[in-house]
Design brief:
Mean pLDDT: 94
Strand content: over 45%
Oligomer: single chain
Shape: globular
Order of helices and strands: EEEEEEEEEEEEEEEEEEEEEEEEEEHH
Number of strands: 26
Strand order of the largest sheet: 1-22-19-24-17-14-13
Largest sheet: 7 strands, antiparallel
Low-confidence stretches: 293-297
Radius of gyration: 19 Å
């Protein structure tokens, strides 16, 4: 049995600080989350200057942020004191737990910025753990080399190939690069809720086309996934075991109740979250513009 397309959505363009456009695939009214993944932004833009990508310090609780680049360079800075450049192929994995603040910036002109930032919701008993930050270099991630495709295991596993990234629930996150005229099938965990997102090119799943910026939620239960493509393409498969209810997604927070989330917002506005002491603003946008755009994060 093979996974089929259950629902197909095109990511919606959204503006961040500096008028930098991202394509938001999750959350959507039609689809709130896929497995543990509750947020999924894809960006692909050329000639990005520091003023266009300077996301000031902002808070998170109850989730993990996952940043993965195909091209470009981003500086991550957080309230734990970590400051790390994210470059293509590496995975930046930050656990907010009970509360963290971080910023993301471009420091030099980037000829192309192409990547994904996603959020993974923490299970109930992990939502108030101590915050932490981990960075996994490209060479430490498992890669499966096939005749006409390459699969990088960002989280979870592909057969005997396991990601070194520890997670608090079962996840699947695979980066697949395929050559022209590729036709491939792989085994997936039958208990995982899964989706496909196309970052470049297009693929066909059971005869249905999925193009760049499309998210295709897959049917549940089957243990095989198959696709074909006429031209070179790159896409990700992501998901995993479902988050337990209740799960509230409110601004940058994941909580058990809406009251808890609103209190976190009050705490942020009252300056009770930890500071990002190493952050230095490089963009030219005004503080007012930043605050307005931050509501979209």
């Amino acid at each position: 049995m093979f996974r089929k397309i259950q629902l197909k959505l095109t990511a919606k363009e959204s503006l961040l600080t500096g008028n930098f456009s991202v394509y938001r695939a999750l959350p959507r009214r039609e689809l709130r989350r896929v497995g543990g993944f509750v947020f999924f932004d894809h960006f692909d833009a050329e000639n990005i200057a520091p003023a266009q990508f300077d996301v000031p310090p902002h808070p998170h609780i109850g989730l993990q942020t996952v940043t993965y680049l195909f091209e470009g360079e981003i500086l991550h800075t957080d309230s734990l004191g970590f400051q790390k450049f994210i470059r293509p192929g590496a995975v930046n994995w930050m656990t907010a737990g009970k509360g963290i603040t971080h910023s993301e910036q471009v420091l030099t002109l980037q000829t192309r910025m192409h990547g994904i930032q996603s959020w993974v919701g923490l299970p109930h008993d992990k939502r108030k753990i101590a915050p932490s930050f981990e960075h996994f270099a490209e060479e430490n991630l498992a890669v499966v080399e096939l005749e006409n495709a390459k699969i990088r295991v960002l989280a979870g596993n592909l057969g005997e190939n396991h990601s070194p990234i520890p997670t608090f629930q079962e996840l699947t996150y695979l980066d697949i690069s395929a050559a022209a005229n590729c036709s491939l099938e792989i085994n997936v965990n039958p208990s995982h809720e899964l989706a496909v997102y196309v970052c470049a090119g297009e693929i066909s799943i059971d005869g249905e086309r999925v193009e760049k910026f499309d998210l295709a939620k897959l049917s549940d239960g089957a243990e095989k996934f198959a696709f074909s493509c006429e031209n070179e393409t790159r896409f990700v498969i992501f998901g995993g075991e479902q988050l337990p209810e209740p799960t509230v997604i409110y601004w940058n927070f994941i909580t058990d109740t809406i009251g808890e989330a609103k209190q976190a917002m009050v705490d942020w506005e009252d300056g009770k979250f930890p500071e990002v002491t190493k952050y230095k603003k490089v963009a030219s946008a005004s503080e007012t513009e930043d605050l307005e755009k931050m509501k979209l994060l």
